[in-house]
Specification:
Aspartate Aminotransferase, domain 2; alpha/beta; about 450 residues; 13 helices; 4-stranded mixed beta sheet; Aspartate Aminotransferase, domain 1
Length: about 450
Amino acid sequence: MTSSPGAPQDVFYARTNIVPLPLIVRAEGVRMWDDAGTEYLDVSSGPVVSNIGHGNARVADAMAAQAKTMDFAYSRVARHQPNIDLTARISAMAGPGYERVALASGGSEAMEIALKFLRQYVVATGQPQRHRIITLSPSYHGGTIATLAITGDASLDPFLEGFAVKSERIPAPFQYRVPTGHTPQSYRMACAEALEAKILELGSETVLAFVVEPVGGLATGAVVLEEDYANRIREICTQHQVYLVYDEILCGTGRTGCFLASHAWPDARADLVVLAKGLGSGYTPLGAVLMPKAMVDDLSNRTGFNFSHTYNANPITCATGLAVLDEYERGDLVNAAAMRGRALRARLDDLAEKHPSIGDIRGKGLLMAVELVADRVSKTSFPAEFPPTEHIRICGLKHGLIIYSRRTANGANGDWFIVAPPLTITEDECDELVERLDATLTGFEALAAPYMTVSDPL
């Protein structure tokens, strides 16, 4: 811990953190190097953001060219071509129902834009009583006060109490641990029915939106919404005139093998979709809200949506986004995510046969999570005094892996780490990742042995 003035961002984090933070000085492709020359594989694309890999010279050149041509133009007083081109490109990739695209400086800001837009729309159309928001528990939707308030994490409640308006919450459709008497299918459908029960409890006329991640991130360990669940929540929202919002900040932009993860469910299209992370791929802070033409144009004819931020549609950001999407096309990265995801999942399944600490592997495309358990038969999690998410990161660093993981909701729903490398990862690099992960898990299990009950292999 440095004591110099200023200091890096980690001085704000808890000093109880036991995981060393390497000083990264260079990155290229799926690899990163620290100041001592140690090489790491970026297992999780940072926080699942570096979709096109690190050090892409074409993207860097596009950023520089735009900065030299026109660095900034504010969207309230001027228009510019990169904004026009990027929104048209995103809309075309998203498809029908998403003809309008509002840009933001990242996922939290984009989620706030989505909620503010819906609120402005119902107020303008004579429905001011619609103000309640429903989300899953657990879930994660951003780091601002408003988006933390709709995040389904009970450990945040003391912070939020009396400070922000929390969302109403219903259970997330976990499929690894289900209540007694349920199958995975019956439980997820019961979770879907919980949405209608909550709407009726609150009064459907008061509910504005249901916000849900098609594939979860760290909050749920990449829980995938199945099609029957997605179709049912779409029916419920339509019946009760509740707006369905898909939070694809993390799972969108090609990571699951479709440009939108929700493209997998043609009958369950959301009213609004929120994107970020992979859209800028770490090269620039960029988020977007995808909306239907009819709603946007209707509101424009009434009051307009007049909330804006200084960096909305920043020219350099837009040029970067266009260059990132060029890389998607050049490398056929959406299809690559599906293909590499299937191959990597098969290799992870092989690891599960070997390592008793692996309880579950789930996800879609190149967005997966590995759940760590103390006992595979009972699905028992590790105790509080042995935080597995921290120890797996430490073991990963020793074997040249940078892993994204932290204990969420105080471990109430289990513990996992994210496997989501850049979509540019090659077959050989996948093999190398798995070899290093094998060694990492061996080291982890040596540390965890006092807390584990080793059952028969899967």
